[in-house]
Write a structure and sequence with these properties.
237 residues; alpha/beta; 2,3-Dihydroxybiphenyl 1,2-Dioxygenase, domain 1; six-stranded mixed beta sheet; 5 helices; globular; Glyoxalase-like domain-containing protein
Length: 237
């Protein structure tokens, strides 16, 4: 099953965004991955049901995230990470679709591939294939090689792009799924999740909104790190 597992925000200052996300998501202590240092970043990954929200900040000059922050004019939704079958991460498939890989790592429990945004037309897109199902190494030891008991998570993200129709077609091919009607909306996780592409005024792609269904929470909404979050009780979905 192909599903959205992680939304990544880029922020100039990680700490206040991390704190606001932890309060909004009623999340446990975040995971800080020293491995992102290779990209010149610091990060925090917060569990949101069975999915995750991450915030990254540049720690050195000249990073891809730093350049995106400058083009975007501030904090915002920088990247999406999709979990799917092994065919999703096959190099030959990406080559056949004319999409370059900018990063690839193959570990016993996960293959992680980042695709060039200029080729996808949208935000930075990571395709992952995990084993066992439900695990997520990037969230820390508790999720490495296993999947803790969880419920709920990401339900929809809105991605602002210059050409929604074209980007939806490209992503549908990359994810091997079919768009819903003509409204530039792609279903994931057997219809429980959606990616919605909308037109933006500029030429920078960014995630602008996210809806999550989480157990034991009240309806709440807030703008954090340049993204509007809408949280709904899992029990009502």
């Amino acid at each position: 099953m192909t599903r959205l597992r992680q939304l990544v925000l880029a922020a100039h200052d990680r700490a206040p965004v991390e704190q606001a996300l932890q309060e909004l998501l009623a999340a446990t202590a975040p995971h800080h991955d020293p491995g992102v240092g290779r990209f010149g970043l610091t990060n925090a990954v917060l569990a949101a049901g069975c999915d995750f929200v991450e915030v990254v900040s540049p720690s050195t000059p000249g990073t891809a995230a730093g350049r995106w922050l400058a083009r975007n004019g501030g904090d915002g939704g920088y990247m999406l990470m999709i979990d799917g079958p092994p065919t999703l991460t096959a190099h030959d498939r990406h080559t056949g679709l004319g999409v370059r890989e900018v990063h690839r790592v193959e570990l016993p429990d996960v293959v992680d591939v980042h695709l060039h945004p200029r080729d996808t037309g949208g935000v930075l897109l990571a395709l992952d294939s995990v084993d066992p199902a439900g695990s997520w190494r990037w969230a820390g030891p508790a999720w490495t090689g296993s999947s803790p008991t969880c419920a709920g998570g990401l339900r929809e993200v809105t991605i602002m792009v210059p050409d929604p129709g074209e980007v939806a077609r490209r992503w549908a091919a990359l994810l091997d799924i079919t768009a819903v009607g003509s409204d530039c909306r792609l279903p994931l996780d057997d219809g429980r999740q959606h990616l919605s592409f909308v037109a933006g005024a500029g030429d920078v792609a960014a995630v602008t909104a996210a809806r999550l269904a989480l157990p034991g929470v009240e309806h709440r909404a807030a703008v954090v790190g340049g993204v509007r979050f809408d949280i709904v009780p899992l029990e009502e979905t």
